[in-house]
Amino acid sequence: MNLCNYRKVIPLKETIWTEECGKRKLVAYFFKELWSLNTIPRVTIIGWRVLLDRIPSKTNLAKREVEVANRLCELCKEEDEATRHLFFDCKISKNLCYKCDNSLREKDCLETNF
């Protein structure tokens, strides 16, 4: 698996999450790219759930009328725990991804097939 492939989905942050982006072709493009990644199914399914905003974040649980003590992100405690925040904006998760990415580079695992 080439771990750099997951970066194809990253433009989602600037497109899918914006109000004016209702273009079916763009959404179809991201789904096509996501499902064509050479990765384990678990990673693809999580990406799919992120695209659909179906991650059980505190904000999504509250929308479904599940009782949540508070909506703050458990990692940074600064913003509401929403899918976008967890995967793109939270400084703690960004830092974790950065460290994992660097760790994988150091171990020369970028072209390893799982």
Quick structural overview:
This protein has 114 residues and is mainly α. The chain has helices at 12-15, 24-36, 41-51, 58-63, 83-89, 91-106.
Overview of this protein structure:
The protein contains 6 helices and no strands. It is mainly alpha-helical and 114 residues long. It has one domain (3-106).
Features:
6 helices, disordered N terminus, 114 residues, disordered C terminus, mainly alpha
Structural domain count: 1
Low-confidence stretches: 1-21, 108-114
> Percent range for helical residues?
40-55%
* Structural classification: mainly alpha
Mean pLDDT: 75
Helical run tally: 6
Largest sheet: none
Strand content: under 5%
Backbone shape: globular
Cα Rg: 15 Å
Helix and strand pattern: HHHHHH
Measure the end-to-end span: 6 Å
Number of extended strands: 0
Which secondary structure elements does this structure contain, and how are they paired or packed?
Elements lengths: L11 H4 L8 H13 L4 H11 L6 H6 L19 H7 L1 H16 L8
Helix pairs in contact: 2-3
